[in-house]
Amino acid sequence: MKRLLKGLLLVVGLLLLLVLVLVLSLDRILKPILERQLTKATGLQAKIGRLDIGLGTPRFNLEQVTLTSSADFGGTRFALIQEIHIQYDFQRLRTREVRLTVLRLDLAEMHLVKNAQGRANWDGPLKAMNALSTPHKDRPSAQEWLYTGIDSLNLSLGRVRYSDLGQPSNSFDLNLGLRDRVFSQVKSPTDMLGLVFEIFLRSRGGSMTTPAGTAPAPANRAR
Length: 223
Description:
Blueprint: H1 2-24, H2 26-42, E1 45-53, E2 59-68, E3 77-88, H3 90-93, E4 97-114, H4 123-133, E5 146-164, E6 172-186, H5 189-202, E7 207-209
Parallel strand pairs: 4-5
Antiparallel strand pairs: 1-2, 2-3, 3-4, 5-6, 6-7
């Protein structure tokens, strides 16, 4: 009887140890899975430096996220994201509805490329964003996710480069220099693009250089 009890205790102890190892290794287990999903969704090679998932809290944090374009666009880095901090509505997530209560995004660098054939390296990410936010007539099916917005967006934007491989004279390099700007109720990717355009106008075009190394005259600010 004592041997049986000791055996059961050993089994329970081993199971608890296994659970503990899985919990402590969860970030390392999920990171390659998330990298594969990002690569599949965007068409860009994804690499995550660090992933931290909140245990018991609806949040996760990614650091040093790198997205790399395919060889069709020179194999250059599409984006370097220093941090993506997300808090989400867990109850809505259970019905496959993505509602972010907080999104903190620190985009250090983005390189937009249009190749000689007129294709752009941002087509894949834009398609993925549009697919996620496309409204459905009925509730999402078991295979679909529906994005319904961001309650609070904390946005930092650094350097944006544009390379036109067909017409190099159209290329430019822009430093937006935006830090910790907070926006509320961002409903769609279109809203986010509008915010970025507004930031561009308010910054007088930021610090921009052309391939010749000259800075264009700043645009007039609306009064």
